[in-house]
Amino acid sequence: MYKLLLTFRYLRRKLIPVFALLAVTLCTAMVIIVISIMGGFLDLVKNAGRTVMGDVSCYSGLGGFPHYDELITAIEDLPEAEAATPIIIAYGLLKLPGDVIKGVQVYGIEPDSYAKVTAYRDILYWTRDTLKTPDPLGGRLYASVAEIYKDHDPVEAAATLTPPWKAVESRPAIATGLEVSPYNVRMPDGTYRFSPSIIGRALTLTVLPVTSKGAALEPATDQFIVVNEFNSGVYDVDAQRVFIPFDIAQKMMVMDAATRVDPDNPTKILGSIPARATEVHIKAANGVSPVELLAAVQVMYDKFSQQHEDMPPQPFMSISTWQQRQAKFLSAVENEKSLMTVLFGIISIVAVVMIGVIFYMIVLEKTRDIGILRAIGASRAGVASIFLSFGAVIGTLGAAFGTTIACLIVMNINEIHAWLGDTFGIVIWDRSVYFFDRIPSQVNTHEVIVIVIVAIVASILGALLPAIKAARVDPIESLRYE
Description:
The protein is α+β, with helices and mostly antiparallel strands and 482 residues long. The chain contains 19 helices and 15 strands. It has a 6-stranded mixed beta barrel with strand order 3-4-10-5-9-8, surrounded by 4 helices. The chain has a two-stranded antiparallel ribbon with strand order 2-13. Strands 6-7 form a two-stranded antiparallel ribbon. A hairpin with a 3-residue loop joins strand 3 and strand 4. The radius of gyration is 33 Å and the shape is elongated.
């Protein structure tokens, strides 16, 4: 009983332990805040990357593979799969207004099936609500685009990749990333200014077709009408990717079905060449993880490739989850999170050292009191446990205060950032640079528990050496101590 009594008496009567308490509080809060922001950023990056990808994808190279329609049917028959969609990927040059030429990644998609597998509709920038956005300077912010779409829905135009305007309905449609056009400027408040907007404009796309063997063919060129733009949240995607109709991409890349003729006798038909696609993206059924879907597709594809001799065997048909496709980028962000945690963990050693120094000072100050305790029968273990309990209390209170402060800051970090900007002009999260409008943050309960436990253990370790010194005090000598 005397141990607990002395522990709280030392905590109440002395100012010095408060500094140790503050050190634990600040270090705990600092680590939780950093991990929460980095974890939130990582989750946003993962979610943003997943919006334009299926849970699992099959890919064999730019030359493509045949029988993709049969493969999709076989995949959708799997209980682990909900839907699948074919994609043609190519690289080309896009001619924008003002004779601006930009290299782009071309995605030929079937909008209906692609929307079932990905979040295609959700990333479209132009919607009826967007067109109603008020301009702080008066009027509507996007009045010019609203006028173009006054009788049509921009989402439906992109959902079908068909221009809704009669004057250009004979031309195919294109949806471009929001950063593809150099005329789209992201402002400090996170909104865009379009000077001018490319919606409704005709763009010229040139691609370089390749055969199934990888040989280059003559470039193919076509004009497309911009019906919408998209904002996936991944800069590389939004700055380089464009979506066009699957059948148009198939023709431009010479991947549509064809007839094989005798080169010496063009009238003699030798057979047919099946249409090709470069990728198939698959969405997992409810309750099925990407890893489980991957295993099912791999087993199915082994049988499928044996039934079709012109299909590439699995080593040459890459079947992977979306995490594996983005592993290089995601691992880099995860490593940054781990590095930041380690660095701030090392800095937190200061708290351990401070506790050790403060407790050592207390032991020196209380040498006579310790001698009295030993003289009246307190054991060495009992004396040591006083200071270890003192360390545990400091660690527990510091971890509790630090966790509370960290959670309050993380939950209100955007409001705090806005207040700093409005009051002092301090802008750390520049919305014109980052693609996320708000500072990402997410408190992970498991990580918080680990940090709290480490803080308490570290406090006890900091008190260990002073506790050992206190336990070794000779009662006779200590009573002579001044």
